[in-house]
Amino acid sequence: MKSKHTISEDKFNNKWGFVISCIGSSVGMANIWMFPYRAGEFGGAAFLIPYILFVVLIGFTGVIGEMAFGRAMQSGPLGAFKKAFEIRNSKIGTFIGLIPVIGSLGIAIGYSVIIGWILKFLADSITGEIVSSDDPVAVFTGLSGEFGSIPWHLLGLVLVLICMSFGVSRGIEKVNKVMMPAFFVLFLFLAVRVFFLNGSGPGYSYLFKPDWSAMANPQTWVYAMGQAFFSLSLAGSGTVVYGSYLKSDVDIVSSAKYVSFFDTLAALLAGLVIIPAVFAYGMEPNSGPGLLFITIPAVIRSIPFGQVFAVIFFLAVLFAGVTSLMNLLESPVEALQKRLGWSRISSITLVGIVTAGIGIFVEGGLLSPWMDTISIYVIPLGALLAGITMFWVCGKTFARNAVQLGRRRSLGKWFEPMTRYVFCGVAVLVYILGIFFGGIG
Fold it and tell me: Which pTM was predicted?
């Protein structure tokens, strides 16, 4: 009973602690290595228009829905789905709630490997090895091979679990309050530095010169939708569990607005740092790990004071990775606490053991198919189930009241049609098109 009481009292201190933590969960690798490439690939500024439209649409429907779902049910996904379906006298909710929890843990397993890579490159930046070592391709190939990064992988995971062990307000909230502002300050500094590199101009053209014909290409809209959907961390898990730690006097609509804005700002800042720097040294922009761990190190070796650039860059990327991984792991941790009544330390220990145990064998060739499988088939399904459950199973009156709680202005008539039909329709499209295209986020 004591552990359950502690859980119910451990909430975010205020709105801004919650907002910054949600920003921390959404700002991650999708912003840093995928957004800049997608923007350039699909028409530069022409891509930004559908992307921002989808950010607004998803932010003011799906994001507020998941936040309100967790707060209304006072539980993460496992308990929230269970309670929701009990409204309909159904016991299927526990099974459905397992899907987003499994998805969150699955992505965390792969993400923890990447955190290890980031730690290794940060260490190499501090020692200067990043500017004096062999070819970046050879370095990354060794690190990303079978069992190639076990010490760094485990070190990164342990650091994240230690941060989480202090709880919600003293752990997750405080870490995000330090790391997220630091991320934006560091990337802003880097963006200014890159602006003065000779030859960076074509990079800005790649990012922002509009190719309006791209807007006639359906794939531009498909990938803009996928980028917005995944960047805002919709999965029926992390945002739900953070919402369950939210106090009743907080305006969720306002919170979603800030999360959407700063998530987009992070993606733009990443683009302003990475792409112009890549073009300044005559390299090709690409997406995925190769951009961070091969292309950027190659650029750093040529930049004056490249070692300083490297330390700042990988430190900022580490902050984004840590805050995202905390959110991913919190879902299974909360499930063990609420469902089995375990202490937080016991829950974190078990989740850490599972994450490390599977993650070690995922290192190498299995990592990419592992992440693709979870992100294509499980993550969007969790988001879709959360949308259907909140806006259909619980009923429109329930959803409206849950979102209205803590808000002074009344929700407009837009709320029901936009959430029940438009958002759920978008979630269905993301799931189907993700399978068809082999991933769109």
Answer: 0.93
